[in-house]
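Hi Y.,

Following your request, here is the sequence exactly as I used it, all 211 residues.
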Amino acid sequence: FYFKDGVNTLRLEGVKEPMTIGCIKLIPQEDIISYEEYKAQHADAGTPDVEPVVVQGEHPLTKSDQTLYAYSDTSTCSTVPYEQSKMLINTIGTTRWQYPQQSITWEIEVPADGNYYIAFKTRKNTAKGMVSARRLYIDGETPFAEAAEIPFNFSNNWVQSQLEVDGEAVMYYLTKGTHQLTLETTPGELGPPPGEGAGILAELDALFRPV
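Below is the corresponding structure, written out as tokens. Let me know if you'd prefer a different format.
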């Protein structure tokens, strides 16, 4: 929406159904560079020769909703931690993590400056044939455009998921020290069709209402 400098007036008119407004935000349109540009900026950083850093998903730093609590998955021994005779908390998310802008943040300790792969151990075993998408933030910012819609494909098994661009797993530049990684629910490629469908239903509703 275009706004002129100074005081502008916004008016919302009720048409149907109740709603509550908590706040209204004006958010400037962001121009995010592509992965190719991002990759070129950090081409000289190199890849540090360090041990992999592993952060357990069930230990987030923060989360947007109380319903995003960790739980126990005993369906396979590939989850960590796992014991055959005990129910151990070892995962987070599942069907509780499906609504827009729900987010989970983890804290990681990076041992040295450089380019790193970021992989997520995931299992998306609901809605076969459909893709779940998450937006990645590193220290509150999305590093490049492709990271705004990371796809997670259907799988009955736990798999290692990485964002790929042109068939190549992407790398992220991280400096030594503590960083925060956030994944936020986003419609991804599925967003436009439901939006178009909602618009068509609204038009039909407007046509039938006077009858």
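Helices lie at 35-41, 192-208.

Thanks again,
Q.
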